[in-house]
Fold this protein.
Amino acid sequence: AQSVTQLDSQVPVFEEAPVELRCNYSSSVSVYLFWYVQYPNQGLQLLLKYLSGSTLVKGINGFEAEFNKSQTSFHLRKPSVHISDTAEYFCAVSENGANNLFFGTGTRLTVIP
Amino acid sequence: DVKVTQSSRYLVKRTGEKVFLECVQDMDHENMFWYRQDPGLGLRLIYFSYDVKMKEKGDIPEGYSVSREKKERFSLILESASTNQTSMYLCASSLNTGSNQPQHFGDGTRLSIL
């Protein structure tokens, strides 16, 4: 079965600094990759997705992620964070042909003024 | 925009009660999902459904059942609630049976079992 690892459970970062949230997955088969964001007391909202094509994917709110097949990674980046980016971020993976999404355990991003 | 609506944001029930969590989506999606979210564990799939009256077990189905009588509605049932089922429950839907389809989530129901 697929497993998704988000090594950093918490990431504090100062406002306007860059941030990278790491995600690694286990399967070497064809996969689709997603990042979701969860603001306090809300459900999950899709930030971006990689289905095929360019390995650099741009999403909402200035976030982007890079798919690296050889390292089975899909790290999320933002060059300059805002206070409003404080939230929990989840990486998710689905395998080609499967209905399920496999989620990581989440990374809580805290932006410090 | 897809709207996934969960009937309650907060719910408090007693041990042994039968509990119903309701979820409705308004975009004619074929797939619907129920997850529970616990700190440090991320989201774990309880059940999903890819069609009316069809259901599949997820990773943690024990103690739960589901019902999908209409395409837009997917209910999660705790047959006899226990304290270890205190959690945040998230419903999601996706367009069809394609693994490249993103899931759309409701705002969650925070369930406390006393």
In short: Chain A touches chain B at residues 9, 32, 34, 36, 41-46, 49, 51, 90, 94-101, 103-106 (CB under 8 Å). The radius of gyration of chain A is 13 Å. DSSP finds no helices and twelve strands in chain A. Residues 36 and 46 of chain A are 5 Å apart (CA to CA).
